[in-house]
């Protein structure tokens, strides 16, 4: 017998005869109908069970998007400590009568370390580097050696420890980004201004390029900087000597929200659940003294950023800026550094 398409579709007479013998009086057809109906019932039961367990999982773990939330609560919901401020300028005739701009706080084992910019009350003060330690990140003791670096202007600094070396990226005089290095975080050597260039390799046009913020990953240094607070640019280097823009347009631009529509500067990059988070401050007030806000944006590649719809993280009227987050072993804390150091803990759900 040749197995053509028509033969395969045609009812087999032997099969029909066997069906008639085993299932007389149309029982075969009735059985098929019952089986089909019961199979549908089983499918519906399985589907309902799946939905039940999915719903139960949500009740236990929360929203299904929680794990993949671009802005998880632990990074964006904070409330001020009753102990604020936890650090401030000493006033009077102290070398650090006032503090300003971004400082840097790290938790090093059971100890906390802070570097900060201090200056006196004279008409044309020089910004100098101070250092303080704490057992809990709340009660701080200034170093007896302060200021620990006074040879050059140091302001608005941040630190990356890579290997056995501390790399400090800071503003120098006239908002010129510079690099300092140290083996212990106490004795610093100035390496000089950062050589930042456009995509075509030409040096930046003269002018301020400040609030340098570095991120090191996979053998590449990433440098975020602002120019007169009018946007945030990204340059890269493999040798810390020449930095080349990824693009000549800002990777994080002003606005469109009112809280950062006029000025913007980036303070810190962290990586959390395979995403990068940029903590930055912005201002939308034209009159001086300006009101500054603390904000956050997210990225998967350090180039394309999405601002948090809930920005600013703190009320604008509080005028808290130069914010960074530090993990204390249990949760993230948000420290705002200007014009005094205030700490904010995770806000309960």
Question: Would you mind describing this structure in some detail?
Answer:
The protein is α+β, with helices and mostly antiparallel strands. Helix content is 15%, strand content 37%. The chain has 4 helices and 22 strands. It is globular. The termini are far apart. The relative contact order is 0.12.
Annotation keywords:
22 strands; 15% helix; 4 helices; alpha+beta; five-stranded mixed sheet; 349 residues
Explain briefly what this protein structure is:
This protein has 349 residues and is α+β, with helices and mostly antiparallel strands.
Write the layout of secondary structure elements.
Elements: H1 5-9, H2 13-22, H3 27-61, H4 73-76, E1 78-80, E2 98-99, E3 104-108, E4 111-119, E5 128-134, E6 141-142, E7 155-162, E8 165-171, E9 177-182, E10 189-193, E11 195-197, E12 210-217, E13 220-226, E14 232-237, E15 242-245, E16 263-272, E17 275-283, E18 292-299, E19 306-307, E20 321-327, E21 332-338, E22 342-346
Parallel strand pairs: 11-15
Antiparallel strand pairs: 1-22, 2-4, 3-4, 4-5, 5-6, 7-8, 8-9, 9-10, 12-13, 13-14, 14-15, 16-17, 17-18, 18-19, 20-21, 21-22
Number of helices: 4
Strand content: 35-45%
Report the C-alpha radius of gyration, rounded.
Answer: 31 Å
How many distinct beta strands? 22
The residue-averaged pLDDT reads 87
* Residue windows where pLDDT falls under 50 for at least 5 positions: 1-15, 31-36, 49-67
Largest sheet, in brief, is: 5 strands, antiparallel
Query: How would you describe the shape?
Result: globular
Q: What sequence of helices (H) and strands (E) makes up the elements?
A: HHHHEEEEEEEEEEEEEEEEEEEEEE
Distance between the termini: 75 Å
- Helix vs. strand class: alpha+beta
Oligomer description: single chain
The helix content is: 10-25%
